[in-house]
C-alpha cells in the first residue's frame, strides 16, 4: 500500500480533518446511532409509525459469510443502497433498509469435514466478522431486523413455504396456483376427470349435461372410479413440489453428488476419482408450470435489459408442434411387441420440415431404447447398443452437448414418417437429451447442423425441403427449362439472369413463370426492368460464378440434384434458415412454395385434422431440482411411510430441526447416500413424533434425508425482513401491504451473476405465495440494478496464465516472476485468494476512514461498470473531505467560521449542486453527484460560505459521507441526527443561466469570446459578434460573405 502518512500526521493543525479524527468521529456517531435507534423503522401498528409518509424499500443481496470476510468489492452495492436510503429518508419516506446473512451452504460443511467443527459454530463466527465489518461502514441498516437463514425461527418459515408449495397445484385454465384441497373438491364435484394418461380434464356444464344424456366421454374417468392409490398418484403428479427421478453425477469415492462443473472427463475435479451417472429420486419444483407467467412478467419490471434477456433465454419459450411417429412393429410376435409403446412422440419447432425427416434419433435413456434392449428387433446390434447406452449414461448433459464428434447406434427399430409414409430408421445418440421435449427428435439433416453431421457420419439420407429464395428459383428453373436450355450451354445465361431478377427484386414464387418468360424474351417485367446491358452482364457473371462453384458439369447433373432433393447434400452444408417449402406434399396437404409461417400453419392444421399431432409451446426451462445430498441445509418437512408415500409435517410442528452429527464425512458408496442418513435415530421415527397428523400416531415413518439447496433461504428473505419477529406468520398482512404493496421491493441491488437462478427462483416462490393469497404483489422486485465488479491488479505470463501478486518482483519499472525470472505483464483481474490481490476494506478504513472509502467507491466510475481498485486514488477523496471541513472549521482553533454575506455565484452553484445530486441519486449516478459536490467545495473555498449555505451543503453531502456530515451538523447547532433532516430545496430559476458564453470565430478559428443573454436570437448574436472590439478590428476593410450562427454556442464569420 502506498505511503499516505499525511492522513495520520501528528504535526498537522490540531483541528484538521485527519484519518485519526475520521476514525474517532465514525466510531462516535456509530455508537450514537445504535444507542438512539436512528435507523430503526417501525411497522404499521407499532409505536412511532407514521402512516402519512410514503415508503421506500431498499434491499441488498445479502452476503454469504465466508471465512475470508469482506473485500473492497462487497461494499460497492451496499454503499449505493445506503446513499439512496439516506436520501429517501431525508425526503420524508419511511425507509426499510435491512441486512441479514445467507448462511447455509457447502463451505461451512467442507470446513466441518476438515476440522470437525460444527458448521453452525463456524458460520456464527463468520457472521460476527461480517457484521463488524458492515457496521464499520456506517450503513443505515435497521439491525433490529437482522436474521440468518440458519436461524431456527427463520427456516421454520422456509419449511412452511415448502409445505404451501407441496400442497398446491397450477390451474392452467385459470393461470394461477391453487391449494390441492381445491383440486380435490373439483374432482369430487365432477368437473374434473382423469385422462388415460393421468392428466386433468375439465368438464364444462354443457358437457356434463350432454354426458347425462349420452353417457361418459371416451378416455376419461371420474374421481370415484379411481382406486385410493390412483387418486393419490394423480394428486401427487399435480403438486408443485414433487418427487422425481433425476440423473446425478455420483462419485463413490467422495460419497457425494457433484455439479457438472466438478466433473472433468468422467472424473472428479477433486482427487480424480471415477464419477458415475446415477438415477436418484429427488424433490423438484414444477417451475415449468409457471414458465409463461415468468416470461410475460418480465415486461412490467424495471430491470436491466440484459438480465431480462438472460431470463427469457433461460426460460426458452419456443412454439412448434408435437407429432407422433408410429413404430413399424411386426405383429408376428405379439409377446415381444408388448414391450413397445405404439409411437414415438417428438416436439419440433420446425414442423414445416417434416417431409425432410429421413430418420429419428432418441436419447439413450428413452423408453424405446430400454424396450429394444429387452426385446431386440431383427438387426438390433444388441451388444453395441447396450455398451453405447451405458457409456452415454455416465456423461453429463453438458459434455454431451459440447461433444463435436457425433456418435450413435442403430436400435433396429423403424418408424413411419406420417407426412411421407416412409419407413425411417430409429437411432440413438447422446446429442439428444432425455430432458428436452420427449427425448426424441425427427431428424431433418438438410436443415439442422447436428442432424446433418450425424447423417454424413452414418450415411443416412439427406432431403431438401426448404429453399431460400435464390435456390428455390434455381429449382424452379431446372424443373421448367425448355429444350434449348436443357441441351445447350444457354441454360447458364438464362438461369443467371433469372436468379438475378428474382433475388434483386425479392420476387415471390407465384410470379416465377412470367419472370422466366421475361428473361427468355428480354422483355421488361412488371416487378422491375430487366437491367441495362452493363448491369445484366455484371449480375450474370456473379451468378454464373456461383454456378461454377456448385461444381456441376452440365444441366443434367444440376437437374438430378433438384429432382432428387439433394442440393444441400451436394453442397456439404445444411441450411437452417427461413425460406420456402419444397418437396413437401402428399395426397392431403402441400406446403410447396409457402413461406415458413405459412408452411407451419398448414402442416399443424393437417396434424390436428388427422390426429397425429397438434400445436405446442415448449420451454427450455426444466423443473427445478431442489434436493441436495448435503448436511448443512434446511431439512425437508417430509416423511415417508413404509409404502414410500410422502406426507408433509403439520405446520404447528415446524420447524423440523437439523440434527447434530458427530461425523460430517460422506461415506464411500456405490449408491448416493445423503449425509443425514447417519442420524439414524432422527431418520426412523413415528408419525406422532414427526408431527404428521394425517397418519395414525404410531405409524413408522422415515424422514426425508436430503436437504434443501442454498437457494431456499434466499428465495424469500426479502419478505421476512418486513416482519422478522413474527412467530405467528411468515409476514403479517399489514407489513406486506405497506412495505411490498402492489409492486414489491423498490430497489434491489446485487451482482449480475444472479441474473438467472436466484432471481428466477425468487420470482417463482413469490408468484405462488401471491396466488395463494399470502402476498399482494405478483413480483418480488420492482427495480433491479447490478453493480459492476471491482477488480484488482494481477500479473500475466506470456501464455495468459495469471501469477499471484506476492510471486512477482519489480525491477526498474518492469515486473518479473520471482520463481522463474520471466518477465510478466501487469494486468487487471478479479480479486481472488489464489492471486493474493484481495484488498481488505478494514485496511483502507484504517488509513482514510469509512467516509472516504464510501466516496471513493462511488466516484470510481458508473455504478454498473467494472472498475480497477487503486488505493492511491483514494487520497483525492480524502482531500475533498478536508477541503469541505475547512469551509466552516478553523483548523487551528476548531471554531466555526462563516462568510458574512452569501456570494451570489456560490449560492447559484449550491442550488445547482442540490438539484444535480438529487437527480443523480435517483438514477444511481453517484460518480457525477460527487463530482458536482467537489466543484462546489472548490468554488466555495474562494469566497467562503454562510452558516445557512453550510447547513444546506452538509445535508446534500450526508448520504455519501454520513459520519463527516453528522459531526458538522451538530457543530452547526442541531440536536437531531442529520439522517432525519429535510433534504434541501432549490429554486428552478437558479438552475438557468441568464448569460452564456459563446465563441466568435473568423474562418473557423476562435478569435474572441462573448457573454451574451441566454435567450438571444440569431440576429442579436450576429450583431453582438460583429461589434465586438477584437472582431471589428480583424474584419475591418474585409468583405463579410456570411455569418453562421449556432445559438448558445458560436458565431462563425466568413470573410473574402
Structural class of the helices, strands and pairings? Answer: alpha+beta
Distance between the ends: 63 Å
Which stretches are low in confidence, meaning pLDDT under 50 for 5 or more residues running? 529-535
Q: Kindly estimate the percentage of residues that lie in beta strands according to DSSP.
A: 15-25%
The major β-sheet equals: 6 strands, mixed
Mean pLDDT: 92
Description of the structure:
The chain has 38 helices and 38 strands. The chain starts with 18 loop residues before the first helix and ends with a strand. Strands 29, 30, 31, 32, 33 and 34 form a six-stranded mixed sheet that branches. Strands 2-1-27-28 form a four-stranded parallel sheet, with helices on both faces. With about 1050 residues, the protein is of the alpha+beta class.
Strand and helix map with partners:
Layout: H1 19-36, E1 55-60, H2 75-90, E2 94-96, H3 106-115, H4 119-136, H5 152-166, E3 168-171, E4 176-179, H6 180-188, E5 192-195, E6 200-202, H7 205-214, E7 220-221, H8 228-236, E8 241-251, E9 256-258, E10 263-264, E11 267-268, E12 276-285, H9 291-297, H10 305-315, E13 317-326, H11 334-337, E14 343-348, E15 359-362, H12 367-374, H13 382-393, H14 397-402, E16 409-416, E17 423-428, E18 440-443, H15 449-458, E19 466-467, H16 469-480, H17 483-487, H18 490-504, H19 512-521, H20 533-550, H21 555-563, H22 567-571, E20 580-581, H23 596-610, E21 613-619, E22 624-625, E23 638-640, E24 646-648, H24 680-683, E25 684-686, H25 687-690, E26 700-703, H26 711-714, H27 717-720, H28 733-740, E27 747-750, H29 757-771, E28 784-786, E29 790-796, E30 802-803, E31 808-811, E32 814-817, E33 823-830, H30 841-848, H31 850-859, E34 867-868, H32 874-886, H33 904-922, H34 926-943, H35 947-957, H36 962-971, E35 995-1002, E36 1005-1013, H37 1018-1027, H38 1029-1035, E37 1040-1046, E38 1050-1055
Parallel strand pairs: 1-2, 1-27, 15-17, 27-28, 29-34, 35-38
Antiparallel strand pairs: 3-4, 5-6, 5-7, 8-9, 8-12, 10-11, 12-22, 13-14, 13-21, 15-18, 16-17, 19-20, 23-24, 23-26, 25-26, 29-30, 29-33, 31-32, 32-33, 35-36, 37-38
Helix pairs in contact: 1-30, 1-36, 3-4, 16-18, 18-19, 18-20, 30-31, 31-32, 32-34, 33-34, 33-35, 35-36
Amino acid at each position: 500500500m502506498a505511503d499516505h502518512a499525511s492522513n495520520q500526521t501528528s504535526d498537522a493543525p490540531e483541528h484538521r480533518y485527519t484519518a485519526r479524527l475520521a476514525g474517532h468521529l465514525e466510531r462516535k456517531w456509530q455508537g450514537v446511532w445504535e444507542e438512539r435507534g436512528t435507523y430503526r423503522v417501525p411497522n404499521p401498528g407499532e409505536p412511532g409509525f407514521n402512516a402519512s409518509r410514503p415508503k421506500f424499500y431498499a434491499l441488498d443481496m445479502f452476503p454469504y459469510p465466508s471465512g475470508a470476510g469482506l473485500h473492497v468489492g462487497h461494499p460497492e452495492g451496499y454503499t449505493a443502497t445506503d446513499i439512496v436510503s439516506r436520501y429517501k429518508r431525508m425526503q420524508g419516506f419511511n425507509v426499510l433498509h435491512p441486512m441479514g446473512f445467507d448462511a447455509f451452504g457447502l463451505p461451512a460443511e467442507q470446513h466441518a469435514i476438515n476440522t470437525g467443527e460444527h458448521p453452525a459454530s463456524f458460520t456464527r463466527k463468520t457472521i460476527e466478522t461480517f457484521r463488524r465489518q458492515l457496521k464499520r461502514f456506517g450503513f443505515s441498516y435497521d439491525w433490529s431486523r437482522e436474521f440468518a437463514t440458519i436461524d431456527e425461527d427463520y427456516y421454520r418459515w422456509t419449511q412452511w413455504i415448502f409445505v404451501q408449495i407441496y400442497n398446491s397445484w397450477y390451474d392452467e385454465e385459470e393461470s394461477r396456483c391453487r391449494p390441492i384441497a381445491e383440486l380435490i373438491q373439483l374432482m369430487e364435484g365432477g368437473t374434473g376427470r382423469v385422462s388415460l394418461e393421468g392428466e386433468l380434464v375439465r368438464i364444462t356444464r354443457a358437457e356434463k349435461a350432454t354426458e347425462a344424456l349420452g353417457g361418459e366421454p371416451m378416455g376419461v374417468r371420474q374421481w370415484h372410479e379411481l382406486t385410493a392409490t390412483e387418486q393419490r398418484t394423480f394428486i401427487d403428479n399435480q403438486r408443485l413440489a414433487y418427487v422425481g427421478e433425476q440423473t446425478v453425477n455420483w462419485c463413490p469415492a467422495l460419497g457425494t453428488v457433484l455439479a457438472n462443473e466438478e466433473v472433468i472427463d468422467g472424473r472428479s475435479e477433486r482427487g480424480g476419482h471415477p464419477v458415475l451417472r446415477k438415477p436418484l429420486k429427488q424433490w423438484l419444483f414444477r417451475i415449468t408450470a409457471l414458465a409463461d407467467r415468468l416470461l410475460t412478467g418480465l415486461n412490467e419490471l424495471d430491470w436491466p435489459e440484459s438480465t431480462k434477456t438472460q431470463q427469457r433465454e433461460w426460460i426458452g419459450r419456443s412454439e412448434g408442434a408435437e407429432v407422433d411417429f408410429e413404430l413399424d412393429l411386426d405383429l408376428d410376435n405379439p409377446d415381444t411387441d408388448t414391450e413397445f409403446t405404439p409411437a414415438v412422440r417428438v416436439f419440433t419447432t420446425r414442423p414445416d420440415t417434416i417431409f425432410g425427416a429421413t430418420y429419428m434419433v432418441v436419447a439413450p435413456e428413452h423408453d424405446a431404447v430400454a424396450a429394444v434392449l429387452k426385446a431386440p428387433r431383427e438387426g438390433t446390434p444388441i451388444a453395441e447398443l447396450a455398451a453405447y447406452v451405458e457409456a452415454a449414461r455416465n456423461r453429463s448433459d453438458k459434455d454431451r452437448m459440447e461433444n463435436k464428434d457425433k456418435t450413435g447406434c442403430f436400435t433396429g427399430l423403424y418408424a413411419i414418417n406420417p407426412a411421407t409414409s416412409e419407413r425411417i430408421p430409429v437411432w440413438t445418440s447422446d446429442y439428444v437429451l432425455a430432458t428436452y421435449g420427449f427425448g426424441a427428435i425427427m431428424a431433418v439433416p438438410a436443415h439442422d447442423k447436428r442432424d446433418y453431421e450425424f447423417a454424413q457420419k452414418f450415411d443416412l439420407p439427406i432431403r431438401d425441403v426448404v429453399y431460400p429464395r435464390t435456390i428455390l428459383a434455381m429449382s424452379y428453373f431446372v424443373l421448367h427449362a425448355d429444350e434449348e436450355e436443357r441441351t445447350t450451354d444457354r441454360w447458364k445465361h438464362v438461369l443467371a439472369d433469372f436468379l438475378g431478377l428474382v433475388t434483386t427484386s425479392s420476387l415471390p414464387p407465384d410470379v416465377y413463370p412470367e419472370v422466366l418468360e421475361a428473361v427468355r424474351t428480354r422483355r421488361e417485367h412488371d416487378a422491375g426492368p430487366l437491367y441495362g446491358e452493363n448491369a445484366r452482364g455484371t449480375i450474370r457473371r456473379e451468378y454464373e460464378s456461383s454456378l461454377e462453384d456448385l461444381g456441376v458439369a452440365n444441366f443434367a447433373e444440376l437437374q438430378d440434384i433438384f429432382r432428387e432433393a439433394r442440393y444441400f447434400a451436394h453442397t456439404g452444408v445444411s441450411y437452417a434458415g427461413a425460406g420456402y417449402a419444397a418437396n413437401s406434399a402428399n395426397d392431403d396437404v402441400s406446403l410447396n412454395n409457402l413461406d415458413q409461417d405459412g408452411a407451419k400453419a398448414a402442416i399443424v392444421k393437417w396434424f390436428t385434422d388427422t390426429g397425429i399431432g397438434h400445436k405446442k409451446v415448449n420451454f427450455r426451462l426444466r423443473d427445478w431440482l431442489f434436493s441436495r445430498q448435503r448436511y448443512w441445509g434446511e431439512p425437508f418437512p417430509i416423511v415417508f411411510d413404509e409404502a414410500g408415500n410422502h406426507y408433509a409435517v403439520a405446520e404447528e410442528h415446524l420447524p423440523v430441526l437439523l440434527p447434530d452429527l458427530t461425523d460430517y464425512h460422506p461415506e464411500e458408496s456405490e449408491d448416493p447416500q445423503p449425509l443425514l442418513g447417519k442420524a439414524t435415530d432422527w431418520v426412523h421415527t413415528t408419525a406422532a413424533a414427526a408431527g404428521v397428523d394425517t397418519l395414525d400416531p404410531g405409524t413408522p415413518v422415515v424422514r426425508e434425508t436430503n436437504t434443501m439447496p442454498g437457494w431456499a433461504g434466499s428465495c424469500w428473505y426479502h419478505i421476512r425482513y418486513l416482519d422478522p419477529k413474527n412467530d405467528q406468520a411468515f409476514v403479517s398482512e399489514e407489513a406486506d401491504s405497506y412495505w411490498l404493496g402492489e409492486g414489491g421491493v423498490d430497489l434491489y441491488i446485487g451482482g449480475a451473476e444472479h441474473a438467472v437462478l436466484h432471481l428466477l427462483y425468487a420470482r417463482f416462490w413469490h408468484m405462488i405465495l401471491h396466488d395463494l393469497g399470502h402476498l399482494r404483489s405478483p413480483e418480488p422486485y420492482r427495480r433491479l440494478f447490478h453493480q459492476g465488479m471491482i477488480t484488482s491488479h494481477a500479473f500475466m505470463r506470456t501464455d495468459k496464465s495469471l501469477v499471484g501478486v506476492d510471486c512477482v518482483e519489480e525491477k526498474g519499472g518492469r515486473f518479473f516472476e520471482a520463481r522463474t525470472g520471466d518477465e510478466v505483464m501487469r494486468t487487471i483481474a478479479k480479486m481472488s485468494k489464489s492471486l493474493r490481490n484481495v484488498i481488505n476494506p478494514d485496511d483502507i478504513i484504517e488509513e482514510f476512514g469509512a467516509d472516504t472509502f464510501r466516496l471513493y467507491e462511488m466516484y470510481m466510475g458508473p455504478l454498473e461498470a467494472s472498475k480497477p481498485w487503486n488505493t492511491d486514488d483514494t487520497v483525492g477523496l480524502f482531500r475533498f473531505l478536508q477541503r469541505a471541513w475547512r469551509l466552516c472549521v478553523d483548523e487551528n482553533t476548531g471554531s466555526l467560521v462563516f462568510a458574512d454575506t452569501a456570494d451570489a455565484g456560490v449560492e447559484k452553484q449550491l442550488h445547482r449542486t442540490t438539484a444535480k445530486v438529487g437527480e443523480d441519486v435517483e438514477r444511481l449516478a453517484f460518480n457525477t453527484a460527487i463530482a458536482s459536490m467537489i466543484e462546489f467545495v472548490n468554488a466555495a473555498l474562494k469566497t467562503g460560505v454562510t452558516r445557512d449555505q453550510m447547513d444546506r451543503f452538509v445535508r446534500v453531502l450526508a448520504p455519501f459521507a454520513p459520519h463527516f456530515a453528522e459531526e458538522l451538523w451538530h457543530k452547526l447547532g442541531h440536536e437531531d441526527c442529520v439522517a432525519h433532516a429535510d433534504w434541501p430545496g432549490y429554486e428552478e430559476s437558479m438552475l438557468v443561466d441568464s448569460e452564456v458564453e459563446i465563441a466568435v470565430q473568423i474562418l473557423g478559428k476562435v478569435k474572441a469570446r462573448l457573454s451574451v443573454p441566454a435567450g438571444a436570437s440569431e440576429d442579436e448574436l450576429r450583431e453582438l459578434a460583429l461589434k465586438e472590439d477584437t472582431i471589428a478590428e480583424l474584419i475591418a476593410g474585409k468583405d463579410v460573405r456570411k455569418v453562421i450562427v449556432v445559438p448558445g454556442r458560436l458565431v462563425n464569420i466568413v470573410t473574402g
